[in-house]
Structures
1.
Amino acid sequence: MRAFTKIDALVAPLDRANVDTDAIIPKQFLKSIRRAGFGPFLFDEWRYLDHGEPDMDCTNRPINPDFVLNKPEYKGAELLLTRENFGCGSSREHAPWALEDFGFRAIIAPSFADIFYNNCFKNGILPIVLDAGIVDDLFNELTEGYRLTVDLETQKIVTPSGREIAFEVDANRKFRLLNGLDDIALTLQHADQIHAYETERAKRAPWLFG
Amino acid sequence: MSGKTLYDKLWEDHVVHTEDDGSSLIYIDRHLVHEVTSPQAFEGLRLAGRKPWRQARNLAVADHNVPTTDRDKGIADPVSRLQVETLEKNCAEFGITEFDMSDIRQGIVHVVGPEQGATLPGMTVVCGDSHTSTHGASGALAFGIGTSEVEHVLATQCLVQKKAKNMLIKVDGEVRPGVTAKDIVLAIIGKIGTAGGNGYTIEFAGSAIRALSMEGRMTVCNMAIEAGARAGLIGVDDVTIEYYRGRPLSPKGNDWFMAERMWQQLHSDPDAVFDKVVELNAADVKPQVTWGTSPELVVSVDASVPDPAQETDATKRESMKRALQYMDLKPGLAITDIKLDKVFIGSCTNSRIEDLRAAAVVAKGKKLADNIKLALVVPGSGLIKQQAEAEGLDKIFIEAGFEWRDPGCSMCLAMNADRLEPGERCASTSNRNFEGRQGYGGRTHLVSPAMAAAAAIAGHFVDVSTEANQGATA
Ligand code: SF4
């Protein structure tokens, strides 16, 4: 998992509440045998004018010019600014997979659906909960080229005008994200112990290590 | 201090590290891989730029999606084909041994493991599949895992686990002729329920378990998961050791002697204390038939379909009613009056050579009943198929009207082309009778191989343990 320390990111606004995981990645894409490659299908029904199917080549599909992520000024956005209850609905981990694959590193919203919130941390995405009033301010301030600095270490967001906004994050999750540690990475911190175990075990049961 | 259970011993032997919260990092000796639960795990490795910790501890085989006829023509369904091809590609890329569809060693992952000596006594064995409990029959700690854990094992050869509680199920006495391991385990599930083993590792013991062959022991442990336990165990004895002698991946030479000495310790100490003990008298067990949509909804073949009105627990009563409706059965109907449309002999529960022999004895010289539209015999592996053909079992089945197929999961879960049509009723030697498990709208009755074969011949269930049928099963 990619570590998250500090980003200075272009912000894309998605001014909708209750964006569900089916909207984030529609169900036909769950047939996939893959975990990567969902980025082109992120928000598929909103982004394109035709019906998406797994493994489609998206380069020549008719795009919806009104959808925010299709606007040239938001190309390369790594921060999604949105409204309450983001990520509700099905528990599919394909939703954070798609957001991450598309390029989003962090999401700001007044609230997130529980399972989605958890899934973000497993996939290197920082979900930030801010007061609805502050989220409103950010939406109002947002003009072309609007960027925010997000510092996970100090738990602060800095706006272009220099305003500092603090945010909360669970210490354990923060630790994992700062260090880019997924469960596997955490286990690999015990790599020496695993090797030592194997060496000792190989003496008792050499046939397991032949 | 009291002695240790087999589970305690296996657990302690595999702890790499223990956290403050009591969770432990457990070393995994054998990881089995199949096509359905592995693609995203391999993809995860690829994305993170990781390699398998120990390639040689992994063994892969495609089983769920493979066709059981016309293998040379490949897989017709593109989604199934892609999953199987993906497994092949992933194994090639990550250097993992795979038995592909054309390999004589291919078969159901839980049949292949012990057959090859890939799963051995004293090991920890995992697979992205709940019936991994099967391998506990050889005194191994074996349990199913999810896709993220598959990735974790590939990358670290370890899993983070919390220890379960100890349960002992003791089956003493002698079973009557015609009663098999399948009947014993169905009777156990009928007694403790499908949630009875939740939070426990179940050790099966007692003289009736000792009297079982390794094949029979695998049938029992296979269904530990149906009793709610992630793992089932049987202590090592001479039967276990003889089974593993000379298997392709069994230890050789001096290693074998070392292994033998070590494996002989793999049983619970006489003074070990279990959190829960359940006892069963083997002599009381009759051939079992499930009548509902959960393995715990089971009765003896000489009984009749139970009446929900007799059930005092309201929740249970409702689920019984729903089950009867789905199964289209009336309370009071004799089990032996239930007529069948199809018969399936196979699955990781009952597709080993002993199972096929037991079914063949019943089918020999007989013909399928007119109402049986299809009776499938699907061996658990290519090697079992070969062995059965060497013994002439295939001819017995074919002459009786059964279809003799290639190995795989087949109609156990109907991910390939073998399935029930809506409303069809099947006598099946598999392990799950859930709604739609063998095909949308299909109705499944779980039984032993001998019971399934006898039902195919009679067209309805018959008691293979009664005198009248004794000639065939003795
Ligand atoms: S035979 Fe059935 S239960 Fe066994 S692994 Fe295959 S699908 Fe699962």
2.
Amino acid sequence: MRVVVAEDLFLLRDGLTRLLSAHDFEIAAAVDTAPGLLCALLEHRPDIAVVDVRLPPAFADDGLQAALAARRKVPGLPVLLLSQYVEQLYARELLADQAGAVGYLLKDRVFSDDQFVDAIRTVAAGGTVMDPEVVTKLLGRRSHDEPIARLSAREREVLGLMAEGRSNTAIAQRLFVTEKAVSKHTTSIFTKLGLAADQDDNRRVLAVLAYLNS
Amino acid sequence: MASRAGPGHDSSMWILITLLWRIMGRLLRRLGRGALLVPVAAMGMALAGVHIWTVALVLIALVVAFRKPLLAAALLPLSMVSAGLAGLVVAALTPGGTVGWVVNAVLAKPQAWFASPAKPGTLVHSGKVGSPVSWVVGGDGPVPWPPWVRLEVRPGKMAMLGQVLPVKPMVPPHAGHVIAMGAATKAAGWWQGRLLVPVALLLLTLGLWLASRMLAGLGARMAALLPELHRWLAKNRWALLLVPVVAVAMAAFGAHPWTIAVIIAAIIIVIRWPVIAADLVPVVLAVLAAYGFLIAANWQDAPAAIYPHAMPYGMVWVNGPKSALAAGAEASVFLAFGAWLVPRTIGAHLRTVFVRVPDTDLAGRVQRLTETRGHAVDAAAAELRRIERDLHDGAQARLVALGMNLRAVERVLPGSPNAALALVAEARETSVRALNELRNLIRGICPPVLADRGLGHAVQALALDTPLPTTLEIDLPGRPTPPVESACYFAVAEALANAVKHAGARSAQIRIRHAAGLLRIEVSDDGIGGADPALGTGLLGVERRLGTFDGILAVNSPPGGPTMVVMEVPCVLSSPKTSSC
């Protein structure tokens, strides 16, 4: 799997490329500026881009802007954003094109490399991975918003874990229930959110979008 | 057939009238009452005839109605009254008209005029009631027609209303003789026919009614302006003297276009530049006095044959050596008055320019700046202490623990790798916590979205993070300076936090807009109210922080709610793309 890494701090960039190489990713390019990122994305068309939000030249949200620009030119280009902080506003902007294949994680999540690599693979496969901090904040509010309000507490919990990019198996392990029970919950979630029963992956993305955009 | 055509005709008329009424109503709603000025002016034009100046007047009315609706509304009663009066006058003078009949019956002479020679270039009235009325023109050259007369000179040719009519003489032109004769008909059309008198009366009534209302409004406005006027007078009383002084000076030269222009210029200077006007008064007085001395001197030694022309000087009519002496005496009075005025006008103004006098406004400003600077320094110091404490108790302590953990790993690794593994996991956990604390600290110093995107987006992010449905109305075409942005952001954050924590609100509303150099932020909620900046430290802190930028905070929070916090900060916005925190 070919990866473009964008990170301006040398130590972190080096660490990321080494970590990814160790997990059999092929580093197509490792860049340190937002314009460089946009060029690399359009040139290499990687399977996934791992991007720091704050990049030169402005050291603001240049990385996010470059990733969004690339996704406007190459719809659905998988992008995993890393940041020292997570903002719901940015999560929404990432999700706005409804194409899926986006992730938004705190840089700390790199510490547990297995979960991090799982997240990369999920995003590359078209899934959506949101940092637990985004999900936690969402759980804390909008209890009376439609149509999420129709979900039971357990279903909301399952949906939250789906938003973090977890598979049914992982959710079952986390909640100490059988995978069948999780599958029952997800079907119920899809029904309550009015999502047609076609591709399971796509429905997961749409459910998460409905959740995050509620 | 005719009976069937009748109702159809009626209904289409009604549709037309309704349509016109709708269009009129919409126009009036859009343009205001002043738009009526145009039809009233058009009626006036119909009375006075189509003329370059009448057309120009209607065009001016059109421009005024569209560009200056307020002025048009003010002019409307005046134009209505004058159009109504003009209509009545026309009705009175129209031969064959209702009023004209009365006037003619009372005033008109018998038909003896035919024989009497007319003065050259004048119109001789027929005095005959009814139509057709004969008119006779006396004298040669163009005859100025009264505007309301239509004179049929020859069959098929009719003089326009108000036109100067070049008539072909019926007899050779000779002063005092009848040179043309025609039939003056009752003017055609409804306007000068039966409807003239009622419409004129209606216009007059409406105009008077509107005028009375306008005068009442004017009175109220004058009452509101009176204190302002008093202040202006107290400050610029000497400036007012410029107009009479200049008028007296100009009277010596008689009424000419240029003297009138000078007086008008003096009035304009008094209104626009009162300080300069006050300074000009002694100067003009000195020049006037010099001129008076000159007059006095000229009259004394001039031989009688070449005496200068008699002229007014002030209150003296100079036509001889004695009155010239009086003018000289008056000139000395002018000069003395001018000299007395110098320290009160020019001198006083020069003092304000060159000598710094204690200014109470300035002193208040200095005091306010001293206060807000003190608050700003205190707040900055407190903030630094908080950051230092947070770093010391948080990240720094975690790093120490991390180092100790790693040291322990070094120790136990050779002996028991499992224990080492547990210690490493613990160290990783500690580093995550340290990062979390640093992140929260940074968010408290300068929130990332605020730095990246500015106030609008940061408030949007804040609303997303608030467990309260919050509606936003943000109109910010650019970014304020980073310190203002930061102060405003934390002010909004404080107000929102209060709505959540203390007010028990169910929803909140944030409005941000920038207009005329003022950033205005409103945060309102539907909670229980009762917020008071004097009771809690939060809003007081916000007030002080905004005060550093001359901003103000107003809280309206009656017990029982709702609460509205309004913040205003004077600031300029930079263009959206070039700035960053």
